[in-house]
Write a structure and sequence with these properties.
The protein is an all-alpha fold. It has eight helices and no strands. The chain has one domain: Orthogonal Bundle (N-utilizing Substance Protein B Homolog, Chain A). It is globular, with a radius of gyration of 14 Å. The longest helix has 19 residues.
Length: 143
Amino acid sequence: MDPRHHARQCAVQVLFQIELGGQNVDEAFSLYWHDRSVGQEVREMAERLVRGTISRKQQIDRLIVGISEHWRLERMAAVDRNILRLAVYEFLQEPCTPRIVVIDEAIDLAKKFGGEDSGQFVNGVLDSLRKSLEEKPRSRLVP
């Protein structure tokens, strides 16, 4: 498995664990890595993605809510919500990864971990956000 894809899978699972389990980031990673053997590259990327997503969660959530027509964040499935958060973090803070790649990865994660319609939902939200971000100067979106 591609290390970047594997890292994203780990990151989504840890974000989900943090939200539903109420642990802090360090506790969540300690529990998550306990029984898993992964390479250093996967571990480092997953931790960077999770810590970055958590540190910018309010900004990310505002962007998701602003683009999600008729959807409140708390109404979204927890898996979908965390996949969206991770992808939006990558949109904003991982400029080396093309946004279309981020969307494709998020769709794959949604199909693997989410419900029947998760892939379509994640695709719709992220594609709308991608278009919106491309219309606005980057400096206005990132504080």
